[in-house]
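Notes to self, VTT domain-containing protein:
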Amino acid sequence: MTLALGPSWLDPDYLLNTFGIWGLLLIVFAESGLLIGFFLPGDSLLFTTGLLITAGTLDFPLWGAVGLICLAAILGDQAGYVFGKKVGPSLFRRPDSKLFKQENVQKAHEFFEKHGPKSLVLARFVPIVRTFTPIIAGVSGMKYRSFITFNVIGGVLWGAGVTLLGSWLGNIAFVHKNIEAILILIVLISVVPIAIEFLRARGKSKKAAAQAEPGTAPDTAGAPAQRGRHAKR
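result:
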């Protein structure tokens, strides 16, 4: 077990040492649009890739890795969009299983409805949501021209941005000495949007429940009579 990411087989170092750059690309593709990829450690994996390349531990050109990562992310979203368009509303009727939860689909749907096409960019930086958002875009019938535009923008910003951040911080000795803490920080930052949305939704539900309780609604029963008496005066 690793402190930052739970099971050892999800540890970025283990994944990169075992499967190399090509395994990384497959993971990025799966997490970007395949239902089975929502649990994969995309952010920390990209960050670690940039760090290891800079440190010389991973023997692969940085810009080559960045280009391939962006391509895998874009193609992954493309696959998710096509899947959503083919499957359609039946996705919302699919029963829960160990790897599939309707809750994840609903969260992505709400995220997409709230942010529109730009959700394809924003969702890249939100774990779980980034897997389901391109599928929801396909389900909703989003115009392909808009989809591919925001897909490319999001894929490049996420794939290149997080990898280059790891590369840049890889030159700092403090990062190498505290890589475990850095990975924990990345995981925490990546789940902040989910936590905010959860707390916001919880607050709305509590507010709605309070308003629905008997006796909390404003008493307007006597208002017409009062207005009538005032009018007679």
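- Residues 1-5, 219-233 have pLDDT under 50 and may be disordered.
- The longest helix spans residues 179-212.
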